[in-house]
Design a protein that fits this description.
Layout: H1 3-18, H2 31-77, E1 81-86, E2 92-95, H3 97-102, E3 104-105, E4 110-111, H4 118-124, E5 133-138, E6 144-154, E7 157-166, H5 168-180, H6 192-204, E8 209-216, H7 219-226, H8 228-245, E9 251-256, E10 259-265, H9 269-284, E11 294-301, H10 309-333
Antiparallel strand pairs: 1-2, 1-7, 3-4, 5-6, 6-7, 8-10, 8-11, 9-10
Organism: Lacrimispora amygdalina
InterPro entries: Diguanylate_Cyclase, GGDEF_dom, Nucleotide_cyclase, Rev_trsase/Diguanyl_cyclase
Pfam families: GGDEF
Amino acid sequence: MTEKDAYVLLEQIRSIMLNKPAVGELEGEAPVYKELQETISCLSRCMKEMKVRENKLIEQAVRSRGFSSLLLSIINSLKDWVVVTEEKTGKVLYTNNLVRKRLYNQENGHFICGETCGLMERLRSSEEITDIHKYEFKCSREKFFQVESHPLKWENTKAVIHLITDVTYQKETEAYLEVMAYKDELTGLNNRRCCISTIDEYIKDNSSFALCMVDLDGLKTINDQYGHLNGDKYLKCVSQELKESAGKGDFVCRFGGDEFVVLYRGLTEGEAEKRLAGINRNLSGILSGYPMSVSYGIICIKKEMNLLPETALKIADEKMYRLKRLRKQKNKES
């Protein structure tokens, strides 16, 4: 029975009471009193049902408040930032603890950074969302965020909940790994992968350049007799000399093991050889406790040669090993 039905019953009782006959006019079993008893009994049942219903509603409300508190507690414990905005106006309805600490104070509407925040402006923009919306956002402070927005009802209001993840560290790591994919860890020079692509670029640019394959003499002996730490010092020393010999627009890389590749733009074979001979003079003057020198092979690549990078490297490598053999032969003869 509804509340409206209860009022109807009460009205019926009032009507019966107003038309009640005088005492003694009718016996207790008169129809009017039977009707009154039935009505009172029905009303009593109705009131009991209403009380039960009221108790259930109170219980549901308590559970709902408890669930809401639990939900907010979970949201506040998330490592992601959470912002709820009204769909039409963009008004901020809720922010979790992380947002309040690092980005936006909902109570006073102030940005923690002290200036208008591009991310919050994006979140507050009046954009109707009917499905999950994902995007990346880069702010003026070189911070990167992944945003996932969902439409929802928030306290009977059409709203959007935004889950925001700071991915700046991830982006920086990816950028670092991308750079390191083309760098030699020990010397800091470019590596073999970068070398091939750079030679290809030089050739496609129709640049005239000297390609030099450089090999450290006696690195294995130094590793065996003086230890690998001294071998690493030898590699670093040569790499530094090669970098200093290179001008703007030139290229130096560690090709692998004890081999380096240098590209000198615009130099002839003779000019490149003078630079490498100068490196040998510098190395001989370093007091390291063991001899340091390099062997090299040079090929001057001109516009009309149309060589593949691998072919050019092979030619320079063969020249370098011829020089090594000549040196060994001279050392034996002496």
